[in-house]
Design brief:
The chain is an alpha/beta fold. It contains 27 helices and 17 strands. The structure holds iron/sulfur cluster. The site of iron/sulfur cluster (SF4) has 13 residues, from α5. Iron/sulfur cluster binds next to α5.
Length: 670
């Protein structure tokens, strides 16, 4: 049977999904997307597809890729989404479709337990706290039973735990073939399984990190897969830029000098003047740092444009390079005698290569800048990933009819999906927009309060807190406040906590106070019948990827329009590049970015066909500025509330039992 026919049968009313998957029903949009994916799988080429909330995009790409029988790489934005695909969606579909395929999960090295480092972690002086030792004991006991060594399996181990670097490895400290644990190594096992699997689930960070250092196995996998699917593709460019960027700090140079003095004395005493070589590098690094000694600012960002300005920079950088050349010559004579010296030689060569990069003229599609704290950091980044995709990623499938799918719920503001097509170098790709099946005008309303402080006003956060409290008191919690800055998040959280002090009424949850998973679980439980309810105040990562279906969330308050701060050097360089082409940076860069972020944030409100809710945007610019109309147009077509009285009535409406129906399904992808 042709793939398109198998796909139609799988999604049909009497297909394997119907009647087995809870709350499943055939949807036109889902089938349309699945057929487009099937077509690109059969014919090769690129498909960029935006699938609105509720289309069921995960199944729409998984069903055809699984049925195709082709070797597939799937990349998503976060490790949590990777776990969801690998642990829930793929096994369920594989079973329903009766396909005995081998699926593997591959994360970055730091996600896996390093058995060798775990053994020495107990002796580490940083582990003097009782709680850290107890956590280490938990990891040790888990290590005896785990099949994967994936540290995400360890209960209550926070991703930011200081213990993690002590029990995982880096490229620099992994002993490789010389490791006594190499046979049982979890990193090696995960890579072996990925190389043997039919479907491999990775994340965008790993994908781009591997393009640079080629050490996690993705670069080896890529030539052998027939299709690559990038889910959450709206994040691809920003994540890619972050990983394709390079940086060199005076701290790295000082650490090199320190290690050279110690390792040289220990393993090759008397064979080279190690202390002098180290001192020379340290002095050259100090001179580089001292270039800013008079600066009164803690952090300074400046374009490194020395070719044009005749700055002293090249002289200072060349002095560092000469120090590195001298120590490399000395290491070259003794490196064979000890693995530690070999590792040092490799590090010094990498530092030299980085330095040479910063000595070269800046490429046209790049930006370079400095950051000054206790050390000086030199950074260089491409403006987008288009060149890397065109020269290093997409050609990897030449001659093999490779298929590429890029998908997300929000990919752009125009039919051509140009923001993702242009930034990712996907010219010539087929584009498709599948609208959400939700009736937003019936299910949701948008309110922009007019009698409100301006976004820059000192009273703004207090007014946002008062409005959120008003709503939460009517709804019994069920309120999420999304802020554009951490500062606003804290001041809104503080204002709410103060207002509710001494009242056994609503709980205020603020991002950062507990791990994200715990905060979300607490918020959902607080909304259950008989509980007091909660208001969640969050920023950054809560703007996307979180799912609160049903009446758990009924009021979403966004404090300000999410324009990116103008001091971001990459964004500044993108603005300049656009202006050099005679285009408005506001119109072509800042406004589309804000529209996308606003849509992502607003997308938290309605997750199911039975959901009802109100979105409040506490920013007068949305109703008063000309560009506000464009931003409203980017939002789903919600009905408008024009006054405080209409807002109050809409809140009351949400408390009626008929509008607080339970969700039609849990947060599942169909
Ligand atoms: S090979 Fe590397 S990652 Fe694996 S256990 Fe040894 S040191 Fe750790």
């Amino acid at each position: 049977m042709a793939l398109s026919a198998s796909v139609a049968a799988a999604f049909g009313p009497s297909g394997p999904l119907a009647g087995v998957v809870e709350a499943y029903r055939p949807r036109e949009g889902q089938l349309q997307m699945a057929q487009a994916v099937a077509e690109v799988l059969e014919q090769g080429g690129m498909l960029v597809v935006e699938a609105g909330t509720g289309v069921g995009k995960t199944y729409a790409y998984l069903v055809p890729t699984l049925l195709s029988g082709k070797r597939v790489l799937i990349s998503t934005a976060t490790k949590a989404l990777q776990d969801q695909l690998f642990g829930r969606d793929i096994p369920q579909l594989r079973q329903l479709l009766g396909l005995p395929l081998r699926v593997a999960l591959l994360k970055g090295r730091s996600s896996y337990l390093c058995l060798n480092r775990m053994e020495s972690a107990r002796q580490d002086w940083r582990l003097d706290e009782r709680s850290a030792l107890a956590q280490l004991a938990r990891i040790e006991s888990w290590s005896h039973g785990t099949q994967t060594g994936d540290l995400a399996e360890v209960d209550a181990l926070d991703q930011g735990s200081p213990l993690l670097p002590l029990v995982s490895s880096t490229r620099d400290n992994c002993l490789g073939a010389r490791c006594p644990q190499v046979q049982s190594c979890f990193v090696n096992r995960a890579r072996r399984e990925a190389l043997a699997a039919d479907m491999v689930v990775i994340n965008h960070h790993l994908f781009f990190a591997d393009l640079n250092v080629r050490e996690s196995g993705v670069a080896e996998l890529l030539p052998s897969v027939h299709a690559v699917v990038f889910d959450e593709a709206h994040q691809l460019n920003e994540i890619g830029v972050q990983f394709l960027g390079r940086q060199l700090s005076t701290g790295q140079l000082s650490a090199m000098a320190r290690d050279l003095a110690l390792t040289g004395q220990e393993h090759a005493r008397g064979l080279a003047p190690w202390s002098e070589l180290a001192a020379r590098l340290e002095q050259a690094a100090d001179a580089l740092r001292a270039r800013f000694a008079q600066s009164e600012r803690i952090e300074r960002i400046e374009r490194m444009d020395w070719q044009a300005t005749g700055e002293r920079w090249p002289v200072l950088l060349q002095a560092v390079e000469q120090a590195l050349v001298a120590l490399l010559a000395a290491l070259g004579l003794v490196a064979e005698t000890a693995p530690e010296l070999q590792l040092l030689q490799g590090r010094a060569s990498e530092l030299r290569a980085l330095l040479q990069l910063f000595l070269q003229p800046l490429p046209l599609d790049g930006v370079r800048w400095l950051e000054l704290g206790r050390q000086l950091r030199m950074l260089q980044s491409p403006l987008d990933v288009s060149q890397a995709m065109q020269t290093r990623v997409l050609p990897s499938g030449q001659g093999t009819k490779r298929s590429w799918v890029f998908t997300s719920a929000t990919l752009g503001h125009d039919e051509k999906l140009s923001s993702v097509v242009d930034s990712c170098g996907l010219a010539g790709a087929r584009t498709l927009r599948v609208p959400s099946p939700f009736d937003y005008a019936k299910q949701s309303a948008l309110y922009v309060p007019t009698d409100f402080p301006k976004p820059g006003d000192g009273a703004h956060s207090a007014a946002v807190a008062a409005l959120a409290l008003q709503g939460a008191q009517v709804l019994g919690g069920r309120t999420l406040v999304l802020t554009t800055t951490l500062r606003a998040m804290r001041s809104i959280g503080d204002a709410l906590a103060l207002a509710l002090q001494g009242l056994d009424e609503l709980e205020v949850l603020v991002q950062g106070a507990r791990p994200k998973r715990e905060i979300l679980a607490r918020f959902l439980q607080a909304g259950e019948a008989g509980r007091g309810g909660a208001i969640l105040v969050a920023s950054a990562t809560f703007w996307e990827g979180i799912d609160m279906p049903g009446d758990a969330l009924q009021l979403l308050v966004i404090d300000k329009l999410p324009f990116t701060p103008p001091d971001d050097p990459v964004l500044q360089a993108r603005s300049k590049a656009l202006e050099a082409q005679g285009k408005s940076a506001f119109k072509h860069l800042h406004l589309p970015r804000a529209a996308l972020a606003l849509r992502q944030g607003a997308g938290r409100l309605i997750r199911r066909e039975s959901d009802q809710g109100v979105l409040v945007v506490c920013d007068l610019r949305l109703s008063q500025m000309g560009y506000g109309r464009q931003l409203v147009a980017a939002l789903p077509a919600m009905r408008r509330l024009d006054s405080a009285a209409e807002f109050a009535a809409a809140l009351q409406e949400l408390t009626r039992p008929s509008t607080t129906a339970q969700p039609s399904s849990s947060s599942l992808p169909w």
